Amino acid sequence: MQNPPLNEILIGDCREVMKTLPENYISACITDPPYNYEFIGHKWDNSEIQRRIEKVSGKGNKTLVKNIPYGSGLAGGVRNKKWYQRNRHNILDYEKWCFEWGEQLFRICKPGATVLVFNSTRTVAHVQVSLENAGFYARDMLVYKRSSGIPKGVNIKQQLEKKGYEQPEKWDGWHSCLRNEWEAICVLQKPLSNNYLETLLEYGTGLFYAKEQFGGFQSNILEGIQRDKTEDFNVHCTVKPISLMRKLVEIFVPRLENSILIDPFTGSGTTLLAAKELGINYVGVEIVPDYLEIINKRLDGISGLQGMLPLSE
Fold first, then answer.
1. Closest to 301 (Cα-Cα) out of 263, 278, 273, 282
2. How many C-beta atoms surround the C-beta of residue 264 within 10 A?
3. CATH architecture of 8-35+103-142+183-300
4. What digits encode the pLDDT tens for the residues 24-38?
């Protein structure tokens, strides 16, 4: 490739788009791919979002828009052998898909490049193993602690009451899940070039900025992050807070002239906004063409910073 992309958004399936990028080109990756329950049916676009909204319309539970789609065979029903087989096949399909894009990501990353991938507490292990199979080395698991969480499982006391069983109060407080108020971010790394110093000097990669604002050491639990008010034109339904993405870029992407951050699942572009704010070069990949206008509109409102750190030749 004569002129590899820089500060651009590429439209298409990232498994194919990343094949067009040169080897050892990318310094870091921060991305939020579809989770495995969104992956069912291999469809996650505006039409699917609208279908889910219409399905739950009037039921007072819009959270279902972001979760297991109706008609997937995993949204409910009898937990029989067939249900668990479907669930297992979904997991295997998801791991295969993660390996496919992870394999291309590994090729284009520089040695020492850090990769951060958001996922749910139930699916993050599958992502980590898939990317390890692609060649990456597991480094950590970050906790993004949200401000609230909504129980989505079965309240067994209510079900017993509805069916007329005696003494349902004995099961008061028993539920099929806990209130989930954190998301996982698995941290992986392409193997170093011998050691951290050599990798830093040759590629500008490999290290984390661990100094906190008031002099402490950065924890792997990220909390106290406020959610943003979504712009009216941004129809994406899983937008991460800009302050969260800015924090991740600050920790995991050295501000060097040759640093390039990629987000293979750009969505509405929050990761790229954080990169531009901090003066980091970026490449975005997005499979839904309709999001390109939203991304560019958001990027146009960011001026960016100057003054990168020098790196010895």
1. 273
2. 26
3. 3-Layer(aba) Sandwich (3.40)
4. 999 999 999 988 765
